[in-house]
Amino acid sequence: MKILILNGPNLNLLGTREPEIYGTISMEDYLEKLKSEFSSDLLLYYQSNIEGEIINRLQEDDFDAVVINPGAFTHYSYAISDCLKNIQKPKIEVHISNIYKREEFRQKSVTAGCTDGVLSGFGMNGYRLALIQLKS
Fold first, then answer.
1. Domain count of the chain?
2. How far apart are alpha carbons 27 and 13 in whole angstroms?
3. With CB atoms counted within 10 Å of each terminal CB, which end of the chain scores lower, N or C?
């Protein structure tokens, strides 16, 4: 089984971006922790700030399940939503912060309805929880 972890815009800045919201660990460091718990052969990782690149990566079809944090695209990317609708594989949306405790515009996800579940507000551990669910 191959699981794609896909992060959207500005998530390349994890560890330095608003640490009071997103924490102080970089995604690269967190991936190393995940690889020590789960097989490194299991995990694929991709991050882009560009909507079309995210869609292209999702359409590559070299994975069995996806954990996606669309970042700001969560709230308005019908293109990513349409792409997710067409992927007939397990999909979990993850948000590091609790989007329902944030600004009003962040409380709506146009992508969540195209996934099997959403984890929001568990910090970086949301990725781990998603992997546990997908492996079960």
1. 1
2. 8
3. C
Mean pLDDT of the chain: 95
Position 121 scores a pLDDT of 96
CB atoms < 10 A from the CB of 28, how many? 12
pLDDT average, residue stretch 71-86 = 97
What distance, in Å, lies between the first and last C-alpha atoms of the chain?
12
Residues belonging to the active site: 22, 95
What is the spatial distance between Cα 58 and Cα 61, in angstroms, rounded to a whole number?
7
Nearest to 5 by CA among 50, 69, 55, 89: 69
Half-sphere exposure of 48 (CA within 13 A, CB side): 12
